[in-house]
Task: structure prediction
Amino acid sequence: MSGKLVLHEYAASGNCYKVRLTAALLGLELERREYDIMKGETRTPEFLERVNPNGRIPVLQVGDRFIPESNAACHYLADGSRLLPRDPFDHADMLHWMFWEQYNHEPNIATLRFWMGWVGADKLSDAQRLQVPLKREAGNAALRLMNEHLSGRDWFVGNAMSLADICLFAYTHVADGGGFDLRLYPAVLEWIERIKGQPHYLPMNA
Ligand SMILES: N[C@@H](CCC(=O)N[C@@H](CS)C(=O)NCC(=O)O)C(=O)O
Result:
């Protein structure tokens, strides 16, 4: 790993937390730089030009280079570590869950958490309000699938914790903030406790 590691982030974001949790579990030091996304601080000309033209955090800075996208940043940090399966099939299976997280999980569970907790249910636009039931159904479908997969197994891939677990954990363990009832998913609840019990586990608000 070459160069100082700086995380450009908004601490309450699960995508940013994934990167902090990966670093903590691996004993890596991260300098943290906070941006207020509610004030558009990731949309300034300086941020767009220097940090991420896509105007979003997290971005992991390595020396003078930048890695946007939470799961890519986690993958960089975990290179060569126990969090990346060596077996090519297991590695691809881990990536499958990380891509799935970005397509089927985060856009539903994280978005409802943001709409409920930051925008406010009474301040949603008409377009957002129309999407709430669809995102609720899709979020519950994602949690159901996770629950079925975890029934009878400890981790998403193989017999050990991998980045698939960390990337899925970030928004799942706070899904109640988006109005999801995790008591409906007992295998998910057990898996959440399993992750919280790992040495060097870092809570989201630490
Ligand atoms: N797919 C991206 C999503 C990044 C993202 O949506 N970041 C949000 C916070 S979680 C953000 O920067 N929002 C501020 C904005 O869009 O202006 C990732 O996994 O990093």
Q: What stands out?
A: The CA atoms of residues 25 and 200 lie 5 Å apart.
